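Hi C.,

You asked whether I'd gotten around to modeling the 274-residue construct. I have! Everything is below, sequence then structure, no commentary in between.
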Amino acid sequence: MRPEIADNRANWDDRVPLHLASAFYDVPGFLAGRDTLPQVDVDGVGPVEGKSLLHLQCHFGLDTLSWARRGARVTGLDFSAPAIAAARDLAARAELAARFVEAEVHDALAATGGGFDVVFTGVGALVWLPAIRPWARVVAGCLAPGGLVWVREMHPMLYTIDEQDPEALRVRYPYFETDAPFTEDSPDTYANDGPDGPGVVAHGRQHCWNHGVGQLVQALLDEGLVLEHLGEHRACDWNALPGRMAQGEDGMWRLEAGADRIPLMLSLRARRPG
């Protein structure tokens, strides 16, 4: 395992108890029946009743289990042992049939057996991968003929913006994939609003990589998938640029000024022929 991936896994292991307790994830609400899937994902994937669905980088599985509630036969995969343990516990408490597998993304085919009707990846996943082409190869390998992959992710343009500058949209980070990651040390996490106050991520070192839209799309095309949808969006799921965004009635965040200047999210659907 690359040292950067080991750092990231330790970081995500530490996040699990903080996220489970957070209002952001609202686990009690989920157990009471709350659906965690935005309509854009439901529409993008389409009906899943009776279909097999693989959720890569599933964390502790709330979205995975929301697909199960919609009738999918779900498998969630994540590299964090505490996250997978929590996912299995939540599945039991919610009385939902689900399989959760502890493995790295590049081992997904061997770990799950492949043959899925849907491969799903949620927001904030791809930035943790050093290279997009191996991921695309895994996705294609895990799909059954006729199966689809749905990606909804923070737009790589958003990942370039200096989040510390409240006055301007200034490019600070690379847009294209690079060998060297962006490395940060932080004891905090995006979902740190539990009832006992903010907790501490003991292993604060984390490494991220950006992947341009063209690199993402071409990687899937080169694996033989057929692009069906590519969208760019003015809204995102959280306050990605504090001091410059406002939350709408739909729960999504948008730039208060200059909303047409940069895309905040992208969505993509591609299909394996057959």
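If it helps when you're writing up: The first helix runs from residue 3 to 20.

Thanks,
B.
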